[in-house]
Amino acid sequence: MSQTHVQTHVQTHVQAPAQSHVPAPARSRVQAAVLRGRIGTGFSPEPHRYRLYVAADDCPSCLGVTAAFADLGLRDTVALTVLRPGSDPAGHEALRRAYEAAGHDHDGTLTVPALCDGWSGRVVSNHAPDILEDLRRLSVHPAFRPGP
Predict the structure, then answer these.
(1) Contacts of 10 (CB under 8 A, 6+ apart)
(2) Is 141 exposed, middle or buried (0-12, 13-18, 19+ CB in 10 A)?
(3) Partners of 7 in the beta sheet?
(4) Angstrom distances, CA of residue 97 to CA of 5, 11, 28, 32, 116
(5) Do 42 and 134 touch, CB atoms closer than 8 A?
(6) For the chain, which terminal residue's Cβ has fewer other Cβ atoms within 10 angstroms, N or C?
(7) 3-class secondary-structure state, position 15
(8) Are 143 and 46 contacting, i.e. CB atoms less than 8 angstroms apart?
(9) Are 83 and 53 in contact (CB under 8 A)?
């Protein structure tokens, strides 16, 4: 079984081999694929459709996205999963499935922040500026505003 490491963009990524008798690969710099889907272009703005994945560490992109998420009042309409190293295997596995659903040539690298679509099961975007803009758009969309 392979070991998963969630990484923030352009960090060292080490993935254990699938079979234990094969030596582990050397550490290398990996530039993960940037997925740049947008809500409103192929993904409709629907409450409870999206899940945001962020890391629990000091990743500047994750910290910015998490702060914006809290400030924009989306807690009741967009799910948030905070991934901690060595814990929440279900969260890591769900993110892995979303990356695999995003493309058949997925290299196994998981990056956060990541905005995922619950309907299609795939990553919409892992590009922090696009995620921030989409969260801002959702916060002013009538379907995402709290009722009277």
Answers:
(1) 29, 30, 31, 32
(2) middle
(3) 111
(4) 14, 21, 23, 16, 10
(5) no
(6) C
(7) coil
(8) yes
(9) yes
Number of residues written out for the chain: 148
Q: What angle do CA 40, 46, 52 make, to 5 degrees?
A: 85
Residue among 6, 9, 2, 1 at smallest CA distance from 87: 6
Checking DSSP bridges between strand 6-7 and strand 110-111, what pairing results, if any?
Answer: parallel
Pair of tokens at residue 24: 């582990």
pTM assigned to the model: 0.78
For 14-71, what is each residue's pLDDT tens digit? 232 232 232 333 333 445 688 999 998 889 999 999 999 999 988 999 999 999 999 9
- Average pLDDT over the chain reads 80
Q: Is 46 exposed, middle or buried (0-12, 13-18, 19+ CB in 10 A)?
A: middle
